[in-house]
Amino acid sequence: MMTKMRQMSKWIFYIVGIAFIALIVFEWGADVNRGGGDTTVGEVNGTKLSLQEFNDMARNALESERARTKGEISEQRSQQIKEQVWEQFVRGVLFKEEMEKLHIAVSDSEIVYQIMNHPLNEFKQDPNLQTNGVFDMNKYRAALSNPQIPWAQIEAYYRDQIPYQKLQNLISSSVRVSPAEIKDEFIRKNVKAKVEYLAVLSNRFRGKTTASEDDLQDWYEKHKDEYKRDENRDLAYVLFEVKPTARDTQNVFNDIAKIKERLSLGEDFSTLALEYSEDPSASQNKGDLGYFDRNSMVKPFSDAAFAAKPGEIIGPIKTRYGYHIIKVEDKKKENGVEKVKASHILLKIVPGPTTLAEQEDRARAFADDAKSNGWDETVAANNYTVKTTGFFEEKSGIVPGIGRNAAVMAFAFMSEKGDISTMYTINDGKAYAVFMLNDILPAGYKPLSEVKALVENEVKFDKARALARAYALKFEDDVKSGKAFKAIAESDTGKIVKYDVTRMFALSESVPGVGRIPEFNGTAFRLKPGEVSDMIDTPSGMFYQKLIEKSAFDSSAFNDQKELIRLRILNARRAAVFQKWYEELKEKASIVDNRKKFNIF
């Protein structure tokens, strides 16, 4: 069965994966003791999730993702998927409870109707169910009788999703979009204005401001809540990088020699490309690169390919990607440009299994010795270099110098000062590391000394804005008297006032030369042609405007678009209402999360 499933297109894995997770959430939730002992990973309102169940869900989701992407999954993506599996469990339990309270159910006839008439996007996108690139409903319905497709699991997916859709519709049923809102949205994106303006920008005064110690202290005290910090941790670590060795390089050259020998005996180049090439595209093109000009490839590759004769096999040619064996098949000129048709076999020099095992053994040995003999002593005995992360917060999600690594983050915030970790794989398998919790910084306020540069910048910016405001006010009488904007700018002896005329812009657009300033755009659309604004006070500076032109409301275009606009606003609003409802439901729920206990990251 699994062999057949692996031969199916990627959407089957994706759908089956989701359905499988849903079935575990809704059907297995009460069975938590199959492995004996307390193996509860989590609990939502009394519904428990065992370690075995979580692992089954995660394994299936990861397999579905591999099928969907047709490649290996990075460490970071793997962590994201496991987090999604946990969230699906929480959401599934809470939704099931609410659906039972509201007596939401789904009939067999509803499922049949939805499967027959509303295929999922994954089906619509599958080339096997398309005619001339367009989804073919007849092909889809014919596929319903295909016994190789796991329709039972897909039915389970619909059985899960239809009640969910009913729940979402029920929760968000009160959402409405008024005709005025539809019209406002159309105007915001389609009606355009053009203004001339005067600008007195705050940054013109930054060099004229200073910040005394009293200024800094006063600002810091008034805005102290902006400088709160959570508990911080600092890690020391020893890094064991995994780099190719001379042995790994020699192994690649041994493979190159084998390939060239087999080619000399008449073996097919494309067959060997499928067997050896590490170019990801080789599985589809068998190494065939088609015709290309000199600028299409990296220089060493192009130089070698264009220097060779048709029929020649050359290499190894070294590029930043690795070593290439190149077969030049043809040459031609197209519109005066010389082109070559070639195939290649790419071999990358990467750490081999022996190199990986050696570095892993070194890292494990260091972790064991450091726990037995002490961190400093073991570092000194092996002459290792110790790096430190510096202090960081858990909510940042990033371990400085390491990146996103949930396992390392969990060690940092679950450990006591001086604790030493086991070996961790980091950087998607490119290195190993062993960590020690170096220090703990309690939650509180960042001291002024730590945020002094930030505070100084804020103080100077605030003072510069005040100077800009005072400078702009000097021209208020001229503006109100009707004096030409350009003449006002030319009369400014300080050469601070900027005069310009915008292009036509929509309310929602960024204005060239001004930026995305809501106050600027909003004022323009409140003016009538020829009308002059009061001073517009914005964080960027002060502005005066005169409306030159505003495009007319296009009622014909509005009538064509208003239903699409209504649906777009309605769907976004319904989603927001439902999400808010879910967050409140989740907040009230009793949720126990034991994932860290089981090293689930």
Automatic annotation (TrEMBL):
Keywords noted in UniProt: Cell inner membrane, Cell membrane, Chaperone, Isomerase, Membrane, Rotamase, Transmembrane, Transmembrane helix
Q: List the SUPFAM superfamilies hit by this protein, alphabetically.
A: FKBP-like (SSF54534), Triger factor/SurA peptide-binding domain-like (SSF109998)
- Membrane topology qualifier: Single-pass type II membrane protein
Q: Which GO terms describe its molecular function?
A: peptidyl-prolyl cis-trans isomerase activity
The parts of the chain that form a coiled coil are none
Keyword Cell membrane on entry? yes
Give the UniProt entry's GO cellular component terms: plasma membrane
One Pfam family name from the record? SurA_N_2
Location(s), subcellular: Cell inner membrane
Membrane-crossing segments per the record = 12-30
Entry keyword annotation includes Cell inner membrane? yes
| Residues covered by the PpiC domain | 230-330
- InterPro entries recorded: PPIase_dom_sf (IPR046357), PPIase_PpiC (IPR000297), PpiD_chaperone (IPR052029), Trigger_fact/SurA_dom_sf (IPR027304)
Assigned protein family: Belongs to the PpiD chaperone family.
Protein name as annotated: Periplasmic chaperone PpiD
Q: What organism, scientifically named, is this protein from?
A: Caldithrix abyssi
